[in-house]
Amino acid sequence: MPTFKGKSVLVLGGSRGIGAAIVRRFAGDGADVTFTYAGSRDAAEKLAEETGSTAVQTDSADRDAVIARVRDSSPIDVLVVNSGIAIFGDALEQDPDEVERLLRINVHAPYHAAVEAARQMPEGGRIIVIGSVNGDRMPISGMASYAVSKSALQGLARGLARDFGPRGITVNVVQPGPIDTDANPADGPMKDLMHSFMAIKRHGTADEVAGMVGWLAGPEAGFVTGAMHTIDGAFGA
Ligand code: NDP
């Protein structure tokens, strides 16, 4: 029987890239998958049709909309918060509103979604957030706000693992290194610099990240919680 048959999975930010691979993974393993998107309606509708999942528009920058979406989808067996953005450039020049928006998407949304999901989540539920190796290591300038946001998810996992552990609910962070997506194409201008930090000198694939998420959500990972799981070709080593 497929691993997630009869399980309800909500992926925040599932229309493209790593999120889309996660949607495909769970749908392929029999789950009933709902995913959100913000701007990519065409990609979302195509993916929903391909996988038999449900696409709903919800902006992760809007706290109340995120909470309402999670509530409407509950009870959820597996919550994956993948939506995330980066901004680049001199910290002294960045628009504070842009930094604020990044923090709402990358930190506030995962926190409030996790708490809301846990209200009705059954015993053995799984909460997985997509962080970044930049939560551990930020070897270049111009990405401090992104590093702040991904480090914050480590505290989220450690803290909420304590809150929800007594109910058998696990909370984990998956921390990718460079992964080939629209946000970080394998042939992009930063490729050689990024690969110079790595032991395996290539971008990872979204499917490789989805595989780790699938394992964390599955029956073998019930004792794994409050932890960071780095998948980065040793970028952070
Ligand atoms: P992409 O930019 O390729 O895709 C981002 C996905 O998140 C899209 O589905 C997008 O939906 C969704 N999203 C973005 N903003 C919002 C929002 N406000 N509300 C709802 N959905 C939103 O990114 P990646 O796949 O590369 O990254 C996914 C996650 O992995 C992020 O959290 C990122 O920080 C993390 N990560 C990525 C790495 C990489 O090298 N690619 C490395 C380390 C971490 P839509 O298009 O509809 O707006």
Automatic annotation (TrEMBL):
<comment type="similarity">
    <text>Belongs to the short-chain dehydrogenases/reductases (SDR) family.</text>
</comment>
<feature type="domain" description="Ketoreductase">
    <location>
        <begin position="7"/>
        <end position="182"/>
    </location>
</feature>
<protein>
    <submittedName>
        <fullName>Oxidoreductase</fullName>
    </submittedName>
</protein>
<dbReference type="InterPro" id="IPR020904">
    <property type="entry name" value="Sc_DH/Rdtase_CS"/>
</dbReference>
<dbReference type="InterPro" id="IPR036291">
    <property type="entry name" value="NAD(P)-bd_dom_sf"/>
</dbReference>
<dbReference type="InterPro" id="IPR002347">
    <property type="entry name" value="SDR_fam"/>
</dbReference>
<dbReference type="Pfam" id="PF13561">
    <property type="entry name" value="adh_short_C2"/>
</dbReference>
<dbReference type="InterPro" id="IPR057326">
    <property type="entry name" value="KR_dom"/>
</dbReference>
